[in-house]
Design brief:
By secondary structure, the chain is α+β, with helices and mostly antiparallel strands. The protein has a domain at about 30-110: GMP Synthetase, Chain A, domain 3, CATH 3.30.300. The chain has three helices and four strands. It has helices at about 30-50, 90-105, 105-110, and strands at about 1-5, 10, 60-70, 75-85. Helix 1 (about 30-50) packs across helix 2. The protein is globular. The protein starts with a strand and ends in a 13-residue tail after the last helix.
């Protein structure tokens, strides 16, 4: 179960099929994809507003999947981001998406990694 600190998000998690799960329910990769899509969309809309661009019906779709790590052969994550910008010319759309990819924190995380700490705790709080 994944629960946010404010308890507004409560999701019963299941293993994805790639790890032997039955495909029923939400898996962590889907949550990551949803967060990535929301973050990219927000950054896209912020940049569009700053550039004075009118963006109608922008849609961001992210797929997070397992791939193989070429170093150890184990799992790693990969992501594909598809951005639909109906009615915008291709040059402006490409520039907006490229600039969004530069500032979106999730895109930066996938591109550069993320600082993190993993700690073992033996007591509950």
């Amino acid at each position: 179960m994944a629960v946010s600190d404010d308890r507004n998000l409560q999701v019963d998690l299941r293993a994805p099929p790639a790890l032997g799960g039955d495909g029923q329910g939400t898996n962590p990769e889907q949550l990551l994809a949803a967060g990535y899509a929301a973050c990219f969309h927000g950054a896209l809309m912020l940049l569009a507003a700053r550039m004075g661009l009118v963006v109608n019906s922008a849609h961001v779709e992210v797929a997070v999947t397992f791939s193989r790590d070429p170093v150890d052969g184990l799992f790693q994550l990969s992501a594909e981001v598809r951005v639909a910008l109906p009615g915008m010319d291709k040059t402006s759309a490409a520039e907006l998406v490229r600039n969004t990819e530069r500032i979106c924190p999730y895109a930066k995380m996938f591109r550069n990694g993320i600082d993190h700490v993993v700690v073992a705790v033996t007591e509950t709080t």
